[in-house]
Amino acid sequence: MVTDVGRTPRAAQVGATRQQILTTAERLFAEQGLYAVSNRQISAAAGQGNNAAVGYHFGTKADLVRAIMRRHSGPIEALRMEMASAVEGSREVRDWVACLVRPITTHLASFEGESWYARFSAQVMTDPAFRPIMAEESLATPSLRLVVSNFRQCPPELPDEVLAERGDMLRTLMVHVVAERERALAEGTATPRATWDEAATGLIDAITGLWTAPITRS
């Protein structure tokens, strides 16, 4: 027998199991950190009787981290490509900063109930063993490569060392400001901005100001 979406019951069950494991792993990693959570704990929390279920479905922890990121990259990629197309040819820093920020905040705003992806991303970014995975997966998306290329062609023209320094600052702001808002929403505490859209505006303002700030010459 084949289901109405062209999948056998076994395939549908496997797909549902994989999604449950991904959701559980994302939540546990976001709340506790990558090294604090074992595959055995994820399997148990996901309701899997087999303690080796995570390894069976995904392989190593690095493979699992990649799978979580790829589950979100599709929707974010579509949003970013649409935004990039709308500002094609612009040489305004703010336009391209918006293309970096808003696809992520719009994606997070689309969740019904709690999300964990921003906090998960912050955990990955601060873990030396897994941070390279974030860089590899992010730069593998055509939309991000397009946005970064256009962004770097905007004024001001920065020296290489300042470009690298501000790039690090930009990435830190993007990941941790969004993660902090997600945490506050999960805990029911106050946030500076009422909505994800307003939070994106504030973050775009800050990054634009950072990127275009004057340089102190020694």
UniProtKB/TrEMBL annotation:
Source organism superkingdom: Bacteria
DNA-binding found in the keyword field: yes
Domain PsrA tetracyclin repressor-like C-terminal span(s) in chain numbering: 99-209
One matching Pfam family: TetR_N
Domain HTH tetR-type: 21-68
Keywords assigned by UniProt, alphabetized: DNA-binding, Transcription, Transcription regulation
Signal peptide: none
Protein name: AcrR family transcriptional regulator
